[in-house]
């Protein structure tokens, strides 16, 4: 029963929860909670799949001696010492676990390779740049297109991450606008947005047929830009950030940082511009508390389903 409940829970989240979350209006008012909700929902779906596979692998009939331990249960099922249904369930569970694990490893490897390639290219640009950087805490590269984005991992010694700004951006932006752009990128770094975007990108690549993960990737890429705008607005004028967004957005730069999604021109530019000029009212404390509690419960639910079902099975056997 546990695998069926876990699969049903994952299907409900993927088919009903993800589209509703993508269409929710409250995420614009609290993008940080929106990112947390997507991370929790995706983790719950993935965890449900893993636990469903594990439950099938550990399937046993009530006549089996539970004292033999979990390892013997797995081994007995795979070696055919149970009935046909148990063997089929065990092999289905093993196949599910291997498939999920292989797809995750494959996707993580592709992302790591793409990141290394991007960082190598940027390092080459940095080496070709002469003279000290005119922007403290940022690396300036010569490029005809205006762009600014965060690169995780150091391009130069002694840094944990680098903000890359092109010479075209420096030429095009006023001093206050450039300061707002840097504050936006620092907001990405402080919020560890790369971890969130990489997680969703990895899931979307690992399971391209799952629309919920594709939605999650798009929405998290969108929401982290709103989060960084909010962070920048604490130290810079919203109008300066809006002007910088208009100056740097355009068809020439819309794909500038394909492997570096945390760019100043990332996300939905029109939505960001409207939100900067007309900030929405923040969510009230009760709504924030309810959403945060739901985010916390989502990944716990599949574990609770699996534990309760195993506990009931154990109790039923002990009572025989």
Helix share, percent: 55-70%
Number of E strands: 3
Number of helices, where a helix is a run of at least 4 consecutive DSSP H or I residues: 12
Structural class: mainly alpha
Rg estimate, integer Å:
24 Å
SSE order, one letter for each helix or strand: HHHHHEEEHHHHHHH
Main beta sheet? 3 strands, mixed
Number of separate structural domains: 1
Mean pLDDT: 80
Through-space gap between termini? 19 Å
Q: Percent of residues in beta strands?
A: under 5%
Strand order of the largest sheet: 1-3-2
Global shape: globular
Unreliable spans: 60-71, 251-258
What does this structure look like?
It contains 12 helices and 3 strands. The chain has 320 residues and is mostly helical. It has one domain (2-277, 285-318). The protein has a 3-stranded mixed sheet with strand order 1-3-2, with helices on both faces. A hairpin with an 8-residue loop joins strand 2 and strand 3 (161-166). Helix 3 runs antiparallel to helix 9 (211-233) and helix 3 packs parallel to helix 12 (285-318). The protein is globular, with a radius of gyration of 24 Å. The chain starts with a helix and ends with a helix.
Summarize the entry for a quick read.
The chain is mainly alpha-helical and 320 residues long. It contains twelve helices and three strands, in the order H-H-H-H-H-E-E-E-H-H-H-H-H-H-H. The chain has one domain (2-277, 285-318).
Task: Name a few traits of the molecule.
mainly alpha; globular; 3-stranded mixed sheet; 320 residues; 3 strands; 5% strand; 12 helices
């Amino acid at each position: 029963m546990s695998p069926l409940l876990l699969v049903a829970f994952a299907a409900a989240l993927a088919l009903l929860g993800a589209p509703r979350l993508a269409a929710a209006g409250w995420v614009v008012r609290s993008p940080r909670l929106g990112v947390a909700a997507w991370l929790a929902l995706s983790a719950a779906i993935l965890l449900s799949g893993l636990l469903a596979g594990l439950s099938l692998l550990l399937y046993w009939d009530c006549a089996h001696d539970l004292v033999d331990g979990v390892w013997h249960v797995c081994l007995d099922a795979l070696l055919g010492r149970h009935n046909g249904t148990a063997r089929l369930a065990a092999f289905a569970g093993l196949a599910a676990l291997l498939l999920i694990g292989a797809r995750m490893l494959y996707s993580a490897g592709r992302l790591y390779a793409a990141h290394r390639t991007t960082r190598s290219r940027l390092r080459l640009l940095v080496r070709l740049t002469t003279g000290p950087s005119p922007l403290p805490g940022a690396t300036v590269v010569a490029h005809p297109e205006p762009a600014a984005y965060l690169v995780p991992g150091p391009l130069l010694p002694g840094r944990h991450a680098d903000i890359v700004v092109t010479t075209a951006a420096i030429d095009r932006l006023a001093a206050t606008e450039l300061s707002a752009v840097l504050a936006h990128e620092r907001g990405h770094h402080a919020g560890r947005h790369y971890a969130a975007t990489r997680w969703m990108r990895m899931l979307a690549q690992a399971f391209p047929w799952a629309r919920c993960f594709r939605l999650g990737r798009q929405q998290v890429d969108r929401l982290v830009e709103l989060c960084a705008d909010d962070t920048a607005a604490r130290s810079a004028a919203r109008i300066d950030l809006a002007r910088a967004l208009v100056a740097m957005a355009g068809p020439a730069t819309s794909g500038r940082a394909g492997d570096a999604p945390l760019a100043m021109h990332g996300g939905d530019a029109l939505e960001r511009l409207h939100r900067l000029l007309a900030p929405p009212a923040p969510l009230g404390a009760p709504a924030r508390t309810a959403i945060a509690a739901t985010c916390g419960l989502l990944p716990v639910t599949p574990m609770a389903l699996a534990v309760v079902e195993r506990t009931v099975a154990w109790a039923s056997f002990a009572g025989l």
